[in-house]
Amino acid sequence: MEFDNTLEVPLPPDEAWKVLLDIQRIATCIPGAELTEVVDAQTYKGRVAVRIGPVAMSLVGQARLEEIDSANRKARVKAQGADPKGRGSADSVIEFRLEPAGTGTRVLIHSDVKLAGLIAQYGRGSGMIESVASQLIAQFGSALKAQIEQSRSRPAAAPEANPLPAKPVSGLTLIARALWDSIVRLFRKQSPK
Amino acid sequence: MKPAVFEYHAPKTVEAAVAVLAEVAPREGRVLAGGQSLVPAMALRLALPAHLVDINGVKGLDRLVVEAGELAIGACVRHAAFHRPAAEGPLGALLAHVVRHIAHYPIRTRGTFCGSLAHADPASEWCLVAATLGARMMARSVRGTRAIAAADYFQGPMTTALAPDELLAEVRLPILSPDSRFGFCEFSRRAGDFAIAMALSTFRIRHGVMTGARIGVGGVEGSPRRIGAAESMLEGQRPSGEVFRAAADRVAGSVEPLEDARYSAGYRRDLARVLTRRALEIAAA
After folding, report:
1. Which part of chain B is CATH 3.30.465.10?
2. CB contact under 8 A, A176 and B157
3. Predicted structure pTM score
4. Which of A183, A176, A184 has its CA nearest to residue A50?
């Protein structure tokens, strides 16, 4: 499924471009994410922890910067992740494009996500995933904004602790909800009347 | 369908329960109360908790009493306990009315009020009641007890302010004054299904005009919440179809509904409007 989101960054496009390509810095702004290995300048391994009510999941995988077009400030990232316990996986291609917006920058994000396993089997379609994505991107945006403001006030400081609470942020709760609904439905259908 | 291997703990006191929870929470330990959400998820191996802390044998958690102007609801109080009014006056009547919308009777004999609040499904009736009436959640851990206000408690679909090692030991609902009126309205395709949207309103009528109005909507957004902008439109007004329609329009304009393959945001917004108006009319009748 494909969908679009936007994000405002309080930096001019040239600076925002540099920040967005600093993967180690960006990773600290992704809710529940942890960078585990830098394979090379384009390839990063990591995991994203997600809690969905009673369902705690950690998607383990890698993200690869496939295309970087500095002239047009466009980038394409391919990210794959799977639950080590076999409950599902996500395969996505995400395209970023920057354009000026006032004194800041607007980041246009186009995502193409394919889900497999339990999530795909029970998920209720694109609307749900879209709201998940917007929620995650909004959380990412505010974390990034907080981080940019923090580094402005103390320019020389080394990147400190993640400005976000370490708690896995449950953007995927909505998927869970979809899942949940279907499961309950399944149960109700099967239960003898 | 069988759950994955887990370790089972059956503490007998609240102190023991929070102690074992503190120990196992970092290693995917979960509290088991009624188990109506957790256990099916385990059977499908969606939820794979390594430890379960069963609180059903804990003394004192089945408390359901009125004290100091509040209805105290312990962690093991089942939904079915509300079929008969748990408090005198409008609060008991409200809970007895709402409980009939929760799933089916067998589920209500097992599932718990506090369990619903800890699970925080966007379409949970009890979560809407807690958010609208301004409940206080009493979170107990080895660090002590803290009270969490409803406005701070709900943080998104199935996401709350509870820390992993905290037990929602009790929820406290403020007693409604004897002249309070309430209206609750829910829409789902079949009885017992999750609500697609629901609305709850309460107010009093003094000298012919409304006062202390509260309007909450659930199932529409990621968490239930009060719509203050609509509440203030009722204050000091005489109850009338016109005022109710205007407040319902304000609710519809204030929500950012969830969207899924079956129900669009626009559909949920329309439901929020209609259900709010009906809830207000029921309260006024």
Report:
1. 64-174
2. yes
3. 0.83
4. A176
